[in-house]
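Task: fold both queries, return tokens.
Query 1:
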Amino acid sequence: MKRCHYIFFLLIALLAACNIIDEPKVNPPVEDTIVLPADSIVLPRDSVVLPPDSVVLPPDTVAVPPDTTILPPDTLSPEKPDQRRNPDYLYDLEALPEITIELTEQSWNQYLQNFDANPNNTIYVPATWTMRKGQDVWRREDIGLRPRGNTSRVRPEGSSGQLHSDGNQFHHAHFGVCFTEYGGKRFFGSDRVILKWFHEDPSYAREVYCYDLFRRFGVWSAPRASYCRLWILIQGDSRPVYMGVYELLEGVRKGWLDERTKNGHLPDDDGNLWKAAWGADLSDFNNVGTANMGVSTDEHQYVYSLKTNKSTGLAAAQKELYDFMEQMRPLPSGSAQLKEYLLEHVDIDLFLRMMAVNVAVGMWDDYWVNKNNYYFYFDSQHRFYFIPFDYDNTLGVSQWGMKDDAATADPLTWGSLEGDRLLCRKIFSIPEFKSQYRNYLLELADSDELFGATGSAARIKKWQQMVKPYLQNDTGEDEIIQDRPASWSSTQQYRLLTGGMGENFFLTRKEAIEHYCKP
């Protein structure tokens, strides 16, 4: 028994000596080891540790490069104080801004359902606009987005009846944007813009060229146009849909009026603005009165659609338009009385410059030939101003029955000078006005800064080089620049950059202008 007690106490002594009772085993510290406090949070091995003053963004925030400046639209550049106040900053042919239209899935599905119910609808859905130009990023929330176009309206996603799904096939389509639809401010002076894909224009240049030529030649009423890259982002999708290179076109509404008034072209901006649809020959009011004039809706489209003073001034606007034409009608063509009336009630020089450019570029889907595609404005003194619009069917695009060959057609008898197209018939009956129109055509044709072949080709090439690297897009459509007219054109031979007489549109059109207009 004593031997057992001895062995037991010996074992206790040995265990105590080995220090394995009541004390945990601790590994010796490694050099540079940091011992954390007991309440520290241990992060996973691949975690990113931010500096103490970092700002953590929500998960759906779009990150921009560190040198990007986020600016409200009213901010002025300290280096160029007038740059961001000027609409030319937005419609800049030297730049290719990036525009993202962001919508909730609910709003986008509403857009698609509206289109299925009526492709010609004018219903806006809420969206967010973000534009990056250089290092500046501009963001506008609660804009309105709707379909645009006449015969070229397209459902931008899937097929009829389909709702949105991440990965669906998208298609090129025109979009209308209204910055003030939900109470927002204008964007660089514009309350509306149109985002247009280059429908049946493989040159990616026709309409942009025409609007640029209008402005070069002093047609201040023409909208501005430039280029942009467009994305559609549906919230919740894995990534935005890249739609490709689009035309950024100024909308003709209140912003257009205010900017022209500010620049001194118009005496006021509270007059009556009208949009003219097909059939608007400004001639038949004696027979139909005001029946073709009104405020268009999705259910009924008027030939003459009032765009301002719609809620309170329709009757007065109808009477103004009716009186303008019916007072002109009985005045003898070529008479002194007619000339006096026209000088008092029409901006004649604007009309002659506009028509010279219109006919030079071969625009047959216009007022003079097709009774289509224009706006007009009456100021508070009942003076008439013509506004050209929709210039994609130009520069060698012709159509049988309208203009079989727009390049060789006589510019002095471009359209009807008979009973309809009263405005053209009356204006060109005045020898002084017709002579000035002829001189304007010759001025256009003789200048490389205007319609000359060499200068025109140089401008078009410059724009094409700017947009060419960005044509591949998620729709898979219109990804190649080609120097040819629309596929349906009756004149497939015309080119803008190459060819001689009979092949190059600018050279061929210049020859026709000189043939018919030189004394």
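Query 1 returned. Query 2:
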Amino acid sequence: MSKLRTTLRNPVRVFLILAAFIVVAGIVIERGTDEFTLQTAVGQTNDTLQTSEDFQHLDRANRAFINLVTRTRPAVVQVTTKTQRTNSQQPSNPFGDDFYRFFFGPESNPQTQPEPVRGLGSGVIVREDGYILTNNHVIDGADDITVILANGREYEAELVGSDPAERNGGGSDIALIKIDENELPSLQFGDSDALEVGEWVIAIGSPLGFSQSVTRGIVSAKGRDEFSGRIRYSDFIQTDAPINRGNSGGALVNIRGELVGINTLITTGGISMGNIGLGFAIPSNMVQQLMPDLIEKGKVVRGWLGVYMGAVDHDLADKLQFESPRGVVVRRVINDSPAEKAGIQPRDIILEFDGKTVQDVQHMMHTVAGTKVGKSVKLTVLRGGNQEKELTVKLAERTAEVVGRSEQRMFRTESEELFAGIRVRNLTPEVAERYGYASDESGVVVIEVAESSEAEKEGIRPGYLIQEMEWMPIDNLETYSKLVAKLKKENKEKVLLYVKSPDGRGGGYVTVKVSTSDR
């Protein structure tokens, strides 16, 4: 008895005794058998787990996703390209490490003989007679386009129409290709405007060449326009469904099996090229609006008003006694533009366009672009803060020539003459905001690139920021002009530049040839 009391006074021994009791209690000895049965920790067997209500809900959701993928995946294809060019003409990877390097491998050693450059992307069959949507940057400049179906069959494709992001005044980066086949599996368009943040979506494509890959995520945000410096008409759906190199041109699908977006690009942390949960897709409603032009004309025809616009912020909205911000502020009117001819003035606030309330800059830009060229449109402006005026404007067509002339006319007095096929101007706060550069950036902005020049072949476009020339930093137009004069005296045949692409998302060194006339 005293020994038992001693044992009970020792807490360690008491704990061990209790533990042993629990283990023994967990064993059930079934009478009449020689078997011992251990009770499960969850208190039920696998059989009862699989018949539980919670499991049934999970199983139905799981089966729904499997069925969704089974129905939609056959309509997503792999797109491969081959382009004959010299290495010096290959797309330069400094210009958008989230964009151009999506589809081109590492650069090879320079060769004097042309060698094929191979590209990789995805596409979506949207009509059973062979029409396939993809991104323009997947097929841009390709000599040969090959489509590989889900069943492995290969077809040569032809380009029907494209809307390049950085040419023809800036577009959406959509392209339409076609293969000679019928009765193909296709995806129906869904209403991207009806998408809700938090809604489940799946992405299907060929990341890194792994065709028919499926990832799942949600709609993280809508109406993203942070890439407007690089893709002029951007209104992206943001998703955390993993997207990687090769996914561009693939499908973003809702749980109804409808195509709600064309996966286009990702944003990375700058170190890794892989996905970090920031993927962006072109909304299906925008794509549907562009397709008729691509089929009928091979390009997208957009209306042009001829103004530079700014947002109506909360402070201005309060001053104007608006319930919430709406409309756009006219910052500048381009000479001889439809806007000037209609009587629009700087500092006017455009409230309505063609009977529709103007929500913001992006809404106004897309509304004008989607209006038929040559149409006379009524718009309402607020002038002087209290005077409403109704004006009529006849829209012109937005083309690269129109945009180029207007920008050259605006910036000619404060720009440098062409050198190495490039004309530049100072990086002002207004220009930095337009192209998405940080307020503390330095350099000069490209406003014109000569057609067929080496600079154009190397991928330099209007809006790119030049920050170094021959290892020398460029602070502004003055330092740039001095360096150009020095290089002309030295009769340089090639010039090394350090450039950044719009939105500051890509940067690197590139060498351009200097023509004899520039030396």
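Both queries returned. Flag for query 2: The chain is about 25% helix and 30% strand.
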